[in-house]
């Protein structure tokens, strides 16, 4: 599992503030884990320390660039695509790098809030070429220097001159027709359309709406989000996107499967106010190089639904005490929607890790005072 996610909530009186993120690693899991640990704190630090001459979008960009530089300083060659959603009062700012995507449900209609950063996009291709790089078609996709199919990411040191860590950010005012926000990696979006995802979320959450209003769930201490991450089944042979596997080096499929035959972990709940998804350790390929930056892991893992070793992280903020709350349940419809989306992507043949987070925006539209 090379994906990760994190959720942080900072309440300031009657003002709700939360930062959600899904991170899709490639070339190893270190970049995604590092981003999950550092990015949220860096973004919030830049916002809190910024002056009136700088916008929230500029502060978010500064947080991404700081995280990228900190990771590059470690000398690790992997990379990570990102999608984040910062909800502050009645405003939401969505940012992305690479092919992680944010899709909004507006009155049941899907609305993509981000644009995938792929090497084949004309604007991205021109930007790369202006910096002296090139894009070529290789292994079924346009790739930066024939290697990486995304044109923006955190990390990827060997391509950093051309692969940007500057995100695109879109800011909106929360309105009454905004229902749900889906953040997910390309493992979902390569197999499921935007509207299909929103239809599944709307149908799964219909029962929750009948149970009560957003204030009902706040009084019941429900979290307004759910997240599921999974890896493809070990029964499906993973294929390198960059070069064929050599059985003399990596072993046969049976050898790999027997190595990873431990029972799948049970699902676990995730605390809302501060949680980091740190996937369980699995055997690593003996030969993973920077050249394999876009390749899926060569060894296979079982599907694990939110099965991970979680490391609660304390976030320093001058406006709030550092408190890590106990785990709280989520409305059942959100969890069911995440599971169904992941299952659909896998059923349709997704060969990549699939990470899906669904956020109930109605929780943030209403005032905390109204739930008392």
UniProtKB/TrEMBL annotation:
Chain segments carrying region Disordered: 253-334
Any one GO molecular function term: protein serine/threonine phosphatase activity
Ranges of Polar residues composition bias in the record: 305-322
- List the InterPro entries hit by this protein, alphabetically: PP2C, PP2C_BS, PPM-type-like_dom_sf, PPM-type_phosphatase-like_dom
Pfam families assigned = PP2C (PF00481)
Identify the EC number(s): 3.1.3.16
Name the enzyme group at the top EC level.
hydrolase
- Provide the cofactor list for this protein: Mg(2+); Mn(2+)
Q: Where is the PPM-type phosphatase domain?
A: 1-361
Identify the keywords attached in UniProt to this record, alphabetized. Hydrolase, Magnesium, Manganese, Metal-binding, Protein phosphatase
Its transmembrane ranges are none
| CDD domains membership | PP2Cc
Family membership noted in the UniProt record: Belongs to the PP2C family.
Identification of the protein by name: protein-serine/threonine phosphatase
Q: Which organism is it from?
A: Kalanchoe fedtschenkoi
